[in-house]
Amino acid sequence: MAAYDWEEQEQLAQLKAFWSRWGQAILWTLTALLLAYAGWHGWQFWQNRQALQGAALLDELEQAVDGADTDRVQRAWADLQAQAGGTAQARLGALLAARTLAEAGRAEEARAALRFVLQRRDDDELAAVARLRLAGLALDAQQWDEAQRLLEAPVPTALQPWRDDRLGDLRQRQGQPEAAREAYLKAWRGLSADIGWRAIVEAKLNALGVDPSEKEGQP
Protein backbone atom coordinates (compact mmCIF):
# COMPACT_ATOMS: atom_id res chain seq x y z
CA MET A 1 0.00 0.00 0.00
CA ALA A 2 2.87 2.35 0.84
CA ALA A 3 4.47 1.52 -2.49
CA TYR A 4 1.21 2.36 -4.21
CA ASP A 5 1.01 5.70 -2.39
CA TRP A 6 4.58 6.45 -3.34
CA GLU A 7 3.97 5.66 -7.01
CA GLU A 8 0.83 7.76 -6.98
CA GLN A 9 2.67 10.68 -5.38
CA GLU A 10 5.45 10.36 -7.96
CA GLN A 11 2.93 10.45 -10.81
CA LEU A 12 1.26 13.49 -9.28
CA ALA A 13 4.61 15.20 -8.95
CA GLN A 14 5.40 14.48 -12.59
CA LEU A 15 1.98 15.76 -13.62
CA LYS A 16 2.49 18.97 -11.61
CA ALA A 17 5.90 19.47 -13.18
CA PHE A 18 4.49 18.92 -16.67
CA TRP A 19 1.60 21.29 -16.04
CA SER A 20 3.91 23.87 -14.52
CA ARG A 21 6.01 23.81 -17.67
CA TRP A 22 3.37 23.40 -20.36
CA GLY A 23 0.07 24.36 -18.73
CA GLN A 24 -0.03 27.96 -19.92
CA ALA A 25 0.82 26.99 -23.49
CA ILE A 26 -1.90 24.33 -23.49
CA LEU A 27 -4.45 26.79 -22.13
CA TRP A 28 -3.55 29.39 -24.75
CA THR A 29 -3.75 26.78 -27.52
CA LEU A 30 -7.14 25.58 -26.34
CA THR A 31 -8.34 29.16 -26.05
CA ALA A 32 -7.19 29.93 -29.58
CA LEU A 33 -8.91 26.82 -30.92
CA LEU A 34 -12.13 27.66 -29.13
CA LEU A 35 -12.02 31.24 -30.38
CA ALA A 36 -11.38 30.05 -33.93
CA TYR A 37 -14.26 27.59 -33.68
CA ALA A 38 -16.57 30.24 -32.28
CA GLY A 39 -15.38 32.72 -34.88
CA TRP A 40 -16.06 30.31 -37.74
CA HIS A 41 -19.58 29.66 -36.49
CA GLY A 42 -20.07 33.37 -35.95
CA TRP A 43 -18.93 34.05 -39.51
CA GLN A 44 -21.31 31.39 -40.86
CA PHE A 45 -24.16 32.89 -38.84
CA TRP A 46 -23.29 36.39 -40.08
CA GLN A 47 -23.15 35.22 -43.70
CA ASN A 48 -26.50 33.46 -43.42
CA ARG A 49 -28.04 36.51 -41.77
CA GLN A 50 -26.59 38.76 -44.50
CA ALA A 51 -28.01 36.49 -47.22
CA LEU A 52 -31.48 36.52 -45.67
CA GLN A 53 -31.37 40.27 -45.20
CA GLY A 54 -30.10 40.70 -48.75
CA ALA A 55 -32.95 38.60 -50.14
CA ALA A 56 -35.55 40.72 -48.34
CA LEU A 57 -33.96 43.97 -49.50
CA LEU A 58 -33.64 42.69 -53.07
CA ASP A 59 -37.34 41.86 -53.05
CA GLU A 60 -38.08 45.44 -51.99
CA LEU A 61 -35.90 46.71 -54.84
CA GLU A 62 -37.63 44.45 -57.38
CA GLN A 63 -41.01 45.79 -56.28
CA ALA A 64 -39.74 49.34 -56.76
CA VAL A 65 -38.46 48.44 -60.24
CA ASP A 66 -41.78 46.83 -61.18
CA GLY A 67 -43.56 49.96 -60.01
CA ALA A 68 -41.26 52.17 -62.11
CA ASP A 69 -40.69 54.35 -59.03
CA THR A 70 -37.19 55.68 -59.63
CA ASP A 71 -36.80 57.44 -56.29
CA ARG A 72 -37.93 54.33 -54.46
CA VAL A 73 -35.50 52.27 -56.55
CA GLN A 74 -32.63 54.52 -55.50
CA ARG A 75 -33.61 54.29 -51.83
CA ALA A 76 -34.01 50.52 -51.97
CA TRP A 77 -30.66 50.17 -53.71
CA ALA A 78 -28.98 52.39 -51.10
CA ASP A 79 -30.43 50.22 -48.31
CA LEU A 80 -29.30 47.02 -50.01
CA GLN A 81 -25.80 48.37 -50.53
CA ALA A 82 -25.51 49.63 -46.95
CA GLN A 83 -26.99 46.62 -45.15
CA ALA A 84 -26.01 43.67 -47.35
CA GLY A 85 -23.32 45.02 -49.65
CA GLY A 86 -21.21 41.88 -49.54
CA THR A 87 -23.90 39.54 -50.84
CA ALA A 88 -24.72 38.24 -54.31
CA GLN A 89 -28.13 39.87 -53.92
CA ALA A 90 -26.44 43.27 -53.73
CA ARG A 91 -24.67 42.71 -57.06
CA LEU A 92 -27.90 41.59 -58.72
CA GLY A 93 -29.68 44.56 -57.18
CA ALA A 94 -27.04 46.91 -58.54
CA LEU A 95 -27.73 45.71 -62.09
CA LEU A 96 -31.49 46.10 -61.59
CA ALA A 97 -31.14 49.57 -60.11
CA ALA A 98 -28.72 50.68 -62.82
CA ARG A 99 -31.15 49.73 -65.59
CA THR A 100 -34.03 51.68 -64.04
CA LEU A 101 -31.85 54.69 -63.23
CA ALA A 102 -30.38 54.77 -66.74
CA GLU A 103 -33.85 54.59 -68.32
CA ALA A 104 -34.88 57.54 -66.12
CA GLY A 105 -31.94 59.59 -67.39
CA ARG A 106 -30.00 59.36 -64.12
CA ALA A 107 -26.81 58.17 -65.78
CA GLU A 108 -24.37 59.04 -63.01
CA GLU A 109 -26.33 57.09 -60.42
CA ALA A 110 -26.56 54.18 -62.86
CA ARG A 111 -22.79 54.26 -63.37
CA ALA A 112 -22.21 54.24 -59.62
CA ALA A 113 -24.36 51.11 -59.25
CA LEU A 114 -22.54 49.36 -62.10
CA ARG A 115 -19.12 50.25 -60.68
CA PHE A 116 -20.22 48.66 -57.42
CA VAL A 117 -20.53 45.35 -59.30
CA LEU A 118 -17.03 45.76 -60.74
CA GLN A 119 -15.57 46.21 -57.27
CA ARG A 120 -16.66 42.66 -56.37
CA ARG A 121 -14.53 40.30 -58.43
CA ASP A 122 -16.04 36.97 -57.43
CA ASP A 123 -18.50 36.77 -60.33
CA ASP A 124 -17.02 37.24 -63.80
CA GLU A 125 -20.36 37.09 -65.61
CA LEU A 126 -21.99 39.81 -63.51
CA ALA A 127 -18.88 41.96 -63.88
CA ALA A 128 -18.97 41.46 -67.66
CA VAL A 129 -22.65 42.48 -67.78
CA ALA A 130 -21.82 45.59 -65.74
CA ARG A 131 -19.00 46.52 -68.14
CA LEU A 132 -21.26 46.09 -71.18
CA ARG A 133 -23.87 48.34 -69.61
CA LEU A 134 -21.23 50.90 -68.70
CA ALA A 135 -20.07 50.78 -72.32
CA GLY A 136 -23.65 51.51 -73.38
CA LEU A 137 -23.76 54.54 -71.10
CA ALA A 138 -20.42 55.70 -72.48
CA LEU A 139 -21.83 55.43 -76.02
CA ASP A 140 -24.85 57.51 -75.02
CA ALA A 141 -22.47 60.15 -73.65
CA GLN A 142 -20.31 59.98 -76.83
CA GLN A 143 -17.34 58.87 -74.75
CA TRP A 144 -15.80 56.71 -77.47
CA ASP A 145 -12.47 56.05 -75.75
CA GLU A 146 -14.17 54.96 -72.53
CA ALA A 147 -16.52 52.67 -74.46
CA GLN A 148 -13.56 51.15 -76.32
CA ARG A 149 -11.68 50.55 -73.06
CA LEU A 150 -14.66 48.78 -71.51
CA LEU A 151 -15.25 46.64 -74.60
CA GLU A 152 -11.62 45.52 -74.75
CA ALA A 153 -12.01 43.61 -71.48
CA PRO A 154 -12.48 39.84 -71.90
CA VAL A 155 -15.99 38.47 -71.45
CA PRO A 156 -17.34 34.95 -70.89
CA THR A 157 -18.17 33.11 -74.13
CA ALA A 158 -21.91 33.33 -73.49
CA LEU A 159 -21.73 37.14 -73.49
CA GLN A 160 -19.47 37.52 -76.53
CA PRO A 161 -22.36 38.27 -78.95
CA TRP A 162 -23.53 41.16 -76.76
CA ARG A 163 -20.00 42.52 -76.66
CA ASP A 164 -19.82 42.32 -80.48
CA ASP A 165 -23.17 44.11 -80.74
CA ARG A 166 -21.93 46.92 -78.50
CA LEU A 167 -18.74 47.10 -80.55
CA GLY A 168 -20.85 47.44 -83.69
CA ASP A 169 -22.71 50.34 -82.07
CA LEU A 170 -19.39 52.01 -81.28
CA ARG A 171 -18.02 51.59 -84.81
CA GLN A 172 -21.28 52.85 -86.30
CA ARG A 173 -21.16 56.01 -84.21
CA GLN A 174 -17.50 56.50 -85.06
CA GLY A 175 -18.43 56.54 -88.75
CA GLN A 176 -16.90 53.13 -89.53
CA PRO A 177 -19.72 51.25 -91.31
CA GLU A 178 -17.58 48.36 -92.55
CA ALA A 179 -16.25 47.64 -89.06
CA ALA A 180 -19.79 47.99 -87.70
CA ARG A 181 -21.12 45.44 -90.22
CA GLU A 182 -18.39 43.00 -89.27
CA ALA A 183 -19.11 43.32 -85.54
CA TYR A 184 -22.89 43.07 -85.99
CA LEU A 185 -22.56 40.04 -88.24
CA LYS A 186 -20.36 38.33 -85.66
CA ALA A 187 -22.95 39.12 -82.98
CA TRP A 188 -25.82 37.84 -85.15
CA ARG A 189 -24.02 34.56 -85.80
CA GLY A 190 -23.28 34.12 -82.10
CA LEU A 191 -26.94 34.43 -81.07
CA SER A 192 -29.32 31.51 -81.46
CA ALA A 193 -32.52 32.07 -83.43
CA ASP A 194 -34.70 31.82 -80.31
CA ILE A 195 -33.05 34.84 -78.68
CA GLY A 196 -35.07 37.98 -79.33
CA TRP A 197 -32.01 40.23 -79.47
CA ARG A 198 -30.93 38.52 -82.68
CA ALA A 199 -33.78 40.24 -84.52
CA ILE A 200 -32.55 43.62 -83.24
CA VAL A 201 -29.02 42.91 -84.47
CA GLU A 202 -30.47 41.79 -87.81
CA ALA A 203 -32.35 45.10 -88.08
CA LYS A 204 -29.07 46.96 -87.52
CA LEU A 205 -27.47 44.92 -90.30
CA ASN A 206 -30.41 45.57 -92.62
CA ALA A 207 -30.00 49.32 -91.99
CA LEU A 208 -26.41 48.94 -93.20
CA GLY A 209 -27.52 47.10 -96.33
CA VAL A 210 -26.69 43.60 -95.12
CA ASP A 211 -28.97 40.56 -95.11
CA PRO A 212 -27.23 38.21 -92.65
CA SER A 213 -29.14 35.16 -93.89
CA GLU A 214 -27.41 35.56 -97.27
CA LYS A 215 -24.03 35.40 -95.55
CA GLU A 216 -24.85 32.30 -93.51
CA GLY A 217 -21.92 29.90 -93.68
CA GLN A 218 -19.53 32.50 -95.10
CA PRO A 219 -16.38 33.38 -93.10
UniProtKB/TrEMBL annotation:
Q: Which domain of life is it from?
A: Bacteria
Q: Which GO terms describe its cellular component?
A: plasma membrane
Residues covered by the Ancillary SecYEG translocon subunit/Cell division coordinator CpoB TPR domain: 16-209
Give the Pfam families listed for this entry. TPR_21
Look up and give the membrane topology term.
Single-pass type II membrane protein
Gene3D superfamilies assigned: Tetratricopeptide repeat domain
Where do the TM regions start and end? 22-40
Which keywords fit this entry according to its UniProt record?
Cell membrane, Chaperone, Membrane, Transmembrane, Transmembrane helix
The main location class comes to membrane
Q: Where in the cell is it found?
A: Cell membrane
Recall the GO molecular function terms of this protein's record. Answer: protein-containing complex binding
Q: Which family does it belong to?
A: Belongs to the YfgM family.
Supply the name of the protein. Answer: Ancillary SecYEG translocon subunit
The species this protein belongs to is Tepidimonas alkaliphilus
